[in-house]
Amino acid sequence: MIEVTAGWYLSLAAVLFSIGLLGILVRRNALIMFMCVELMLNAVNLTFVAAGRALGNLEGQVAVFFVLVVAAAEVVVGLAIIVAIFRRRESASVDELASLRG
Amino acid sequence: MTDAIWLVIALPLAGAVFLHFFGRRLGEPLAGIIGTLSVAASFAVGFAAALPFIVEEGAHGETVMLWEWMPAIGANLEIAWDSLAAVMTLIITGVGTLIHVFSIGYMHGDERFARFFTYLNLFIASMLTLVLGGNFAMVFMGWELVGLCSYLLISFWYTKPSAAAAGKKAFIVNRIGDFGFMIGLMLVFTNFGTLAFDGVFERVPEILDEGTATAIGLLFLVGAAGKSAQIPLYVWLPDAMEGPTPVSALIHAATMVTAGVYLVARTAPIFEAGPNAGLVVAIVGALTALWAASIAIAQSDIKKVLAYSTVSQLGYMFIAVGLGGYIAGIFHLMTHAFFKALLFLGSGSVIHGMHDEQDMNKMGGLLKKMPVTGITMGVATLAIAGIPPLAGFWSKDEILGVAFEYGGVGIVLWVIGLVTALITAFYMTRQWFMVFTGEPRWDKGVEPHESPRSMTVPLVVLAVLTVGAGFLNTPFRLTLEHFLEPSFELVKVAHPPEGWGMFALLAAISVGAGFAGMAMAGFVYSRPREIWERFQQGFGRLWEAWAAAYRVDDIYGATLVTPGRKLSERLAFTFDAGGIDGLVNGVGRAVRSVGTRTRVLQTGLVRNYGVGFVAGLLAVVIWLVVAGGGV
Amino acid sequence: MGDTMLTALILVPVVAAVIVMLLPANRKELALPVGFGLSFIPLAIAGYLFFHFETGVAGYQYTQKAVWYEAWGISWNLGVDGISLGLVALSVILVPIALAASTNITDRTKEFVVFTLLLEAGLIGSFLALDLFLFFVFFEAVLVPMYFIIGIWGSERRIYAALKFFIFTAFGSAFLLASIVALSVLHNQQFGAPSFDLRDLMSLDLSLSQSRWLFAGFGIAFAIKVPVFPLHTWLPDAHVQAPTAGSVLLAGVMLKLGTYGLLRFNLNLFPQAAVDAVPIIATLAVIGIIYGAIVAIVQPDLKKLVAYSSVSHLGFIVLGTAALTSAGFQGAVIQNVNHGLTTGALFLLVGMIYERRHTKQIADFGGLAKVMPIFAGLFLFTAFASIGLPGLNGFVGEFLVLIGSYSSIPGFAAVAAFGVILAAIYLLWAYERVFTGVPDKPENQKLVDLTPREIGLMVPLVVLMIVLGLYPKILLDRTAASTEALLDRVEQATTYEVPEPGRLADVFAGITEGDE
Predict the structure, then answer these.
(1) Residues of chain A positioned with their CB less than 8 A from the CB of B593
(2) Is the pLDDT of residue B304 over 70?
(3) Domain count, chain C
């Protein structure tokens, strides 16, 4: 039986995080990018929980709660924005959303 | 009575306030009568309060505190009532009353009749503040307030640009003098820790060294030269003639311009501690006397002659007070107030009768038409020329005697005084003959007439005073001297030489000078116009220089006013707007240009930002791995 | 009642602002009268405060202290003394006048009234705060309403002016904030707990270089606010563009935040640095006095002229502060109030003529005394008060400053006295060009004289100018103890000794000696 140590969890988190990061860098669809962000956030959550368990204290889990709340808030705002943009532009491609160009 | 002394100031002030709000409704002549009565009442109170000094010889003054003003510097509103203040008060309110009466006639028909009396009353109150103030700050307050009234009254006819400009000029030139006065006050405060007369004069010998006393004296001289129109600040006074003539008589002859003389007399202990300052005062006075007299020779404007004559006579007073002859100076101040007020009012009467004509070349032969004016002005002319036994003779002679007795530089001043006396007699006689005798040279349509009673009565009263006032202080009977002595206890007052022989000799010389001047002028100007025009042309360019007042105004304009304005423009539009503000805006522009260049970094593409983000992340990771995080 | 008075004084304008804000949108004509009426409440409170103020007491009165954030040592800490009392009174007097002068503001009236009332709260709060953090909050809070007042209701270049005003002041505030935080940190190091309380911070033991740096930090913020040459260029722009009420409050009260700050904070907190900096401050003050006046002479715009005259007059206040003598301090405190009254009045008058002619250019006028005699009379009166005519208020402060500074820094005082000549030149020349002569331009011939409302605006100011000119004791009595205490503070904390006769005590000694 292989023992599932903290390293496993951390590796999984790193993989998830990398996938998320890559997704943000290469995809143009705002919705997909958004999901990638969620992926990264959850990777971090995983790290927190794993580290908390490994170190034997609760702070990691507390941090996760914060992240969850912030992520939820972010989803609410972010999705609303994306939907609003989609209604207006008929597209969710971030490359077309460059009106903040200096 | 001394307790009620505040009424002396309060009455004319109340008159001014009342007339300011209700004068227009009261109309003519009621507003004028109220204005006159308030000053007359002030005179009555002043006279009653002065009685103790007359009755009881050597009576001391006292200080009446009204209320605290700036106690931190020993400056309160308080009245120092002594014999000097009493003399000044009586001159101011006495002559003031007469001039108010005169103005009722003179200002007849002016649309701002009531306003004129408001200002006149305010002036009387201010002037009394000046002479009654018990500390330097209050004197300074009066000093500035009379300047304000002078400004208001010179530019009374403000729709005339020249009048407005003259008022402004008077105030600003006076301010230049005040600058010196203020610094003098600062020096006084720094040395004595108070500005109250009580705390200053008695302690002068123990506190002031000669250098400081001289410095204070010279700074006061700057102030006095401004107010009393001495070199180099006299230029405002001739212009001040733009005001109505009663104003010229009251402010620019009888009272305000003598403030400088009063100041030197009041601060006598300081000048005694720094005698060189006094000497400078006397020298400035002598130079001014001669300088202004020479200009007066060639003036053709009837009021300009009198203006320069006033400057010149003030110079006499400066000689006296500068050399320590305080009583002689105050004496001349008094007699001058009478005869010069008379001359100005007389000229006002002439101008009035000639339908606002001031050019003497267009007068002549007025004696028949205006006998009262002519005769009273004749009396004043004799007085200013120093013909005994008129008032001018006694006071001028006393000043010359003081100068002579001083010796050394005093002799020079005495000679200058004599020459001035001769010139004075000349130009005054010239004026009288040009105006009152000879063929009429009036413009068409001008029909001269004698002025109404309200104008001639003050002339007659002043003429009586001009004849009689001299007897207040003759070598035979020194009434004024004894009256004023208690006010000058702290100092040694200079006197003319003792002895009848010397008196007779000096008097003979100065009377001789006066007669010589009169004779010369009479000889020339009693004859037809061609003769005296030829006489004047005989002087060539000198006469032109006199007539143009040595072009001092132009010189000041070219050396001070124009460069000053240029500097101001340079500072305002080049240095301030361009330089400092340009720098400020330059900083703004620099920030903006940096922004413009760096804004291209903001592509607006999320992926670009993402790449930057990851690159940063990698950099941090590499740094952690390679350098161990600096730990 | 006693200890909540000051809080009430700050909160009442805020409440008034809320009330005005809640007025129904379709009744916007109500905003101005309601705001005007409500602004009398602070006036009444401050009046009570003023006349019940105990004279001869040096410390703060009506103090109130409530902990705000204990961990950082911040508290709601208010108090008034002789130095701030006059400024508080000035604020509550000028606000109703400024509101009543704003009947020409028809666009977004409600917002205007709200901003003005908030401005009042901020100004009063700044003068009353004894906690540096609280002071900073108010000091900054003042900026916002003023920014909008200039930016919304100003003239053509209002945005530029408002932005310049804001950035200038905010630039100074950055230094102020850093210095305040630094003080608190130092307090933490020395006493184990941070504090922003002015009185706590006065007991800090600062090294010379610390105190100099912090002095400079505070100094820059206040110098910009005053403004001290060469940081003054925001002022003319702000004034020219601001609406009348804005100018009145800006010149009348807001600039005093700078002079007040110098007196209250720079001298109290860093006495040694202040003593060392006297030559620099005095030099800048004197340059301001002369330079402001010279530049004012040729200004073609009446409002700009008055703005530059402010630079000159405020130089006197700074000079009095730098004098470090009784008379100098008293003069500075008094001049704070006097300048507010006279310059406020001048701006009101310029506003009145601007409403009629829609121009402030001197060249567009001429001969106005003929058609508007009351206006001309009031203008001349105010001009002379501003010139410093004895008997009117302007003189008292200026004279005390000059006399006071001559004892300690005679050279500077002598040069500054030159300013009195220049003041006469710029104001009388302007008067001559605007009011005298014959009104030859047709637009000027039809002008109507002041309405009763406009005269009513000027009456309280004129009365105050006369009263404070002849009986400044009302103010001097209340300031004397505080200025003496400040002088004591400077003397005790440094090697500086007030030169004779720079102290009140010397003066009275002088008088008694003289009587003997």
Answers:
(1) none
(2) yes
(3) 1
Q: What's the CA gap between B504 and B583, in Å, rounded?
A: 76
Give the closest-approach CA distance of B188 to chain C in angstroms: 9
Q: Which chain A residues touch B616 with a CB distance below 8 Å? A: none
Instruction: Name the residue ranges covered by the structural domains of chain A.
Output: 6-101
- Note whether C touches B: 3 CB pairs or more under 8 A: yes
In a domain, C284, yes or no: yes
The β-bridge partners of C64 are C78
Distance CA C346, CA C243 (A): 13
The dihedral sign for the CA sequence C290, C292, C293, C294: positive
Mean pLDDT for all residues in chain B: 89
Fold of A6-101: Helix Hairpins (1.10.287)
Picking from B61, B67, B53, the residue whose alpha carbon sits closest to that of residue B6 is B67
- Return the residue in B599, B605, B618 with the most chain A beta carbons within 10 A, the one to mutate for interface testing: B605
Given a cut of 70, the residues of chain C with pLDDT beneath it are 1-2, 504-516
Residue B592: CB atoms within 10 A of its CB come to 10
Nearest chain B residue (CA) to A27? B607
Q: What is the pTM of this model?
A: 0.89
pLDDT tens, position by position, B4-61: 888 999 999 999 999 999 988 888 888 999 999 999 999 999 999 888 888 777 677 7
Which of A33, A95, A101 lies closest to B602 in CB terms?
Answer: A101
Residue C403 domain flag: yes
ipTM of this complex prediction, to 2 decimal places: 0.90
Rounded Cα–Cα distance for residues B454 and B20 (Å) = 23
Residue numbers in B near C500 (CB within 8 A): 193
Nearest to A21 among B604, B605, B614 (CB): B614
In chain B, what residues touch C501 (CB-CB under 8 Å)? 189-190, 192-194
Within 13 A of C383's CA, how many CA atoms are on the CB side? Answer: 25
- CB spacing of C233 vs B183 below 8 angstroms: no
- Domain membership of residue C249 (yes or no) is no
Residue C450, domain member (yes or no): yes
Q: Which residue range is the domain that position C369 belongs to? A: 278-516
Residues of C in contact with B74 (CB under 8 A): 507, 510-511
Q: What is the model's pLDDT at position C509?
A: 47
